From TrEMBL:
ABC transmembrane type-1 domain segment(s): 68-263, 351-552
Protein family according to the UniProt entry: Belongs to the binding-protein-dependent transport system permease family.
Ranges annotated as spanning the membrane: 9-34, 67-91, 103-123, 143-165, 198-222, 242-262, 294-316, 358-376, 388-413, 433-452, 481-499, 531-552
SUPFAM superfamilies associated with the record: MetI-like
Compartments where located: Cell inner membrane; Cell membrane
Keyword Transmembrane: yes
This protein's name: Iron ABC transporter permease
Keywords carried by this UniProt record: Cell inner membrane, Cell membrane, Membrane, Transmembrane, Transmembrane helix, Transport
GO terms under biological process: transmembrane transport
Lineage: Bacteria, Bacillati, Actinomycetota, Actinomycetes, Micrococcales
GO cellular component terms given for this protein: plasma membrane
């Protein structure tokens, strides 16, 4: 009897952890790996036999290398500018305290989760000939695309670097200053080397996002500028050239793998550095010294010029009607299907579709991502187990870097009867929230994981010594602390699902289109009324997304979400 009870005690936790690992892996395998691998494999199989001639054909085109150059060029420029502009903002928001700092932190976070189509439309209204910056020649230019990418990714740098900067022990800087070092020399020789791992981690993630940007490039690039991501979309949707799309997907996967490798190494170094810092925030009240005043002015200029100006221009332009008059005509038209029935559903109906889809996607992403974060937060003693945990963490970051177009089209290739189930998922509305959840899961993991890793293992050990079963330890120790980041994780997942465009543009039926898809369709239809509706719809979607993120910021814990 005792042996039987002991077996049940041992098998119970093992089965629970197996389930915690198995459910996310099954989700990732069925709804990410299988569609991507199947679609890519179809490009290398001709008449049932392996044929690698597509590599030579695609890599031999000058257009391919032009696209590779544009992809790497925009990613490099976007990353460099994001880091350069993000550092003064990180100092202001995490190293200094002042009234309104929390609100400003939330404002800086909002661009990261704004729908790509909305951002593209916002910058397009500035760059067109009649726009505020029309004289600068940024319409359909590489510079315009890079500016929009920086708008998106500055918040990644601010939160990643700022989270470490806030907790750096200030005594090293104080010692250097006491020995006569100037503020610039202290920054260069003490502060920046300490921040190096966080800067490297942020830069690698930003490079990943810039290299796989889709909606912004599609809206702002026109016919002159494209990337590997947009070329996959063109080859798949317009030419049904799966062979070329497969080769391009492999090229993109190589870039993504290298970026994730660098990011993982940098994150590991960052965690080692964080163990050495003080637990007390080093933020001090803002002082009106020349250095602080300069950094504050630069930060306000970045927020105002890069973040507020495009959105303010979008809002202002949305109140100008088709004939140039000011009023609410564009917003009134949201209840129609547009000029010449450009849409199948109204904008308000599309908004309802977006909200319902995002709710389901958020539920899936939080469950799957929460399980992944719980498993990855453990630090097993065995080397093989630690390696397996690291691989699991890296595997669930892959959806951030793989073309959403590849994922979306792969769904159609594979999910007619998934795993032999007699049900065609392609004809149901379930594919859209699943595809959006695939994109949102990595963000949930990155939001919850830092909090779980910060749990002192001794708390679990004490609870176990006092007789608590593993399940009770989880409920009483991990779950209450993880709940601190749950609000932000839900906010990220919901906002990202609202704005997801790449895979949704493939999967959403015309009668169930989401708002980003409707906005893109309005932009592509002729007529001033359709364009005005696109502007007004973009404002509605941006306002909803911003509201969700601001609410999530207010609900977050003190340390939740410092890492994206």
């Amino acid at each position: 009897m005792r042996a039987h009870s002991a077996t049940r005690v041992l098998v119970g936790p093992a089965a629970a952890w197996g389930l915690a690992v198995g459910v996310p892996l099954l989700f990732l395998g069925v709804f990410f790996a299988w569609p991507v691998v199947s679609l890519v494999a179809r490009g290398f199989v001709t008449d049932g036999a392996l044929d690698l001639g597509g590599f030579g054909e695609v890599l031999g085109r000058p257009r391919t290398w032009r696209l590779v150059g544009l992809t790497l060029g925009q990613a490099t420029l976007g990353t460099a500018l994001s880091v350069l502009l993000g550092l003064p903002l990180a100092y202001t928001l995490y190293r200094r305290s002042f009234p309104g700092r929390t609100l400003l932190r939330g404002l800086v976070t909002v661009p990261f989760v704004l729908p790509t189509v909305v951002v593209g439309v916002a910058f397009r209204t500035l760059f067109v000939h009649s726009g505020l910056l029309g004289a600068w020649g940024l319409e359909e230019s590489l510079a315009g695309i890079v500016v929009a990418l920086v708008f998106f990714n500055v918040s990644v740098v601010v939160r990643t670097v700022g989270g470490l900067w806030e907790r750096l022990d200030p005594r090293a800087e104080q010692a250097a200053a006491a020995l006569g070092a100037s503020p610039w020399r202290v920054l260069r020789t003490v502060t920046l080397p300490s921040l190096g791992p966080a800067i490297a981690s942020a830069a690698s993630v930003v490079f990943l996002f810039c290299a796989t940007a889709f909606g912004v490039v599609l809206v702002l690039g026109g016919v002159r500028f494209g990337t590997i991501e947009t070329e996959i979309w063109v080859r798949t949707t317009q030419f049904l050239d799966l062979r070329s799309a497969s080769v391009l997907s492999v090229l993109q996967l190589v870039v993504v793998t290298l970026a994730l490798f660098v990011s993982g190494r940098a994150r590991a170094r960052r965690e080692a550095a964080l163990s050495l810092v003080s637990d007390v925030s080093a933020a001090r009240p803002l002082r009106w010294t020349p250095a602080d005043a300069l950094v504050l002015l630069v930060s306000l200029a970045i927020v105002g010029g890069l973040m507020v100006l495009p959105l303010a221009g979008l809002v202002a332009r949305s109140f100008r009607g088709p004939t140039g008059e000011w009023g609410l005509s564009n917003y009134v038209a949201l209840g129609t299907t547009g000029e010449r029935n450009a849409l199948v559903v109204t904008v308000w109906e599309a908004l309802g579709n977006s909200v319902r889809t995002a709710l389901w996607a958020t539920l899936i992403a939080v469950v799957v991502g929460g399980l992944v974060a719980l498993v990855v937060s453990r630090r097993p003693r065995a080397h093989g187990a630690r390696r397996a945990v690291a691989l699991l963490d890296a595997a669930f970051m892959l959806p951030l870097g793989v073309s959403a177009v590849t994922v979306g089209f792969g769904f159609f290739v594979t999910l007619d009867r998934p795993l032999g189930i007699p049900f065609d998922l392609r004809t149901s509305g379930a594919l859209v929230p699943i595809a959006q959840a695939v994109v949102a899961v990595p963000l949930v993991v990155r939001t919850v994981l830092p909090v779980l890793r910060a749990v002192d293992p001794r708390l679990r050990e004490v609870a176990a010594v006092l007789g608590s079963a593993p399940g009770r330890v989880l409920r009483t120790v991990d779950v209450p602390l993880a709940a601190r980041s749950l609000g932000l994780a839900v906010g990220f997942a919901f906002a990202v699902s609202l704005g997801e465009f790449g895979a949704t543009s493939f999967l959403a039926r015309p009668d169930a289109a989401t708002l980003p898809v409707v906005i893109f369709r309005l932009i592509g239809r002729p007529g001033a009324e359709n364009y005005g509706m696109a502007l007004a719809a973009s404002v509605v979607l941006a306002a909803l997304t911003a509201s969700v993120m601001m609410l999530a910021e207010r609900l977050r814990g003190d340390r939740a979400g410092e890492e994206l």
